[in-house]
Design goal:
By secondary structure, the chain is mostly helical. It is built from 13 helices and two strands.
Length: about 290
């Protein structure tokens, strides 16, 4: 696969995953959070297992444990995303969650005990101003429970990105991604059994939402991203990740009639700018990151 085709595939994957914010919000209108996650990810895992059963036949214990770890991290991320979507627009949740791109170099600096680059600090400052504008109402700063959950989710997402980066070099990245999907669905099913009343979708619209989430957002988005990333650089990958919040906001405005105010629009531009800024400034390539996502 050529680099141009890989980047085209990567763009399609990121855009497909960005639609999950809208369809999750639609699904939450009639289904509970853990129930929706369980049906979505277990169905996706079943389909992936049928397609890639030959690669799953000889999975070792360590690979299973690593898949369980990644599934647990992304279960926390998806749970935070679902609960924040109850009170916050899909575009805002996507923007806040993708601030993980900024948290990753900060966490890596803490792990390596080295100060972040000036470009990283500048990006963080721009992002914080963007968050303040994004969560403002009529020009007055406001941050609610949903926004706080989304920001905490971004921090967990950053941890998941770093963990995925470490583990993907030790195992088949595609197999890890499939196992991650299966364990995520299993954890969600446990949550549904403990705190909710699990059920299958009942109406045609519910099945349509679940199938869209399982096939397009999970099966396509989760599975093919490692394939695309294997043919391009981490720097290019992180640039493409900026497409997620942008398209989530666009889809939210088109499908959910969510409003994009002047303040929130400016906040979006600042956050997107903060994500892209480090790539326009020369620096140490060790701070490039790979996105492992939602």
């Amino acid at each position: 696969m050529s680099e141009k085709r890989a980047e085209l595939l990567l763009a399609c994957v990121i855009i497909a995953r960005s639609t999950s914010f809208v369809f999750n919000k639609l699904g939450l209108g009639t289904m509970t959070a853990f129930n929706l996650l369980a049906v979505r990810f277990l169905l996706a895992f079943a389909l992936l297992a049928l397609v890639f059963y030959r690669r799953l036949r000889h999975v070792g214990r360590r690979t299973l444990l690593r898949g369980a770890l990644l599934g647990g991290l992304f279960f926390l991320i998806m749970s935070g995303e679902m609960f924040s979507l109850r009170t916050v627009d899909s575009g805002t949740v996507s923007l806040l969650e993708n601030m993980a791109i900024l948290f990753v170099p900060l966490l890596e600096s803490a792990i390596s005990r080295r100060l972040p680059r000036p470009a990283t600090l500048l990006s963080a400052a721009v992002a914080l101003v963007g968050v303040a504008l994004l969560t403002s109402a009529g020009g007055t700063f406001r941050i609610g429970v949903g926004e706080c959950i989304a920001l905490c989710t971004a921090l967990v997402y950053a941890c998941a990105i770093i963990t995925t980066d470490r583990l993907s070099h030790r195992d088949d990245a595609l197999v890890l991604g499939i196992l991650q999907v299966g364990f995520l669905g299993f954890y969600a099913l446990i949550g549904a059994l403990l705190f909710e009343s699990p059920r299958l979708p009942l109406t045609g619209s519910e099945w349509g939402i679940v199938l869209m989430l399982a096939i397009v957002c999970t099966g396509f988005g989760y599975t093919l991203q490692p394939v695309a990333q294997s043919h391009t650089s981490a720097q290019r990958v992180s640039l493409f990740c900026a497409l997620s919040p942008m398209f989530a906001a666009i889809f939210g405005a088109l499908l959910l009639k969510e409003k994009i105010t002047v303040w929130s629009g400016l906040g979006m531009l600042l956050i997107l700018g903060s994500i892209l800024l480090p790539h326009f400034l020369k620096g140490d390539k060790r701070h490039d990151i790979q996105d492992g996502s939602v």
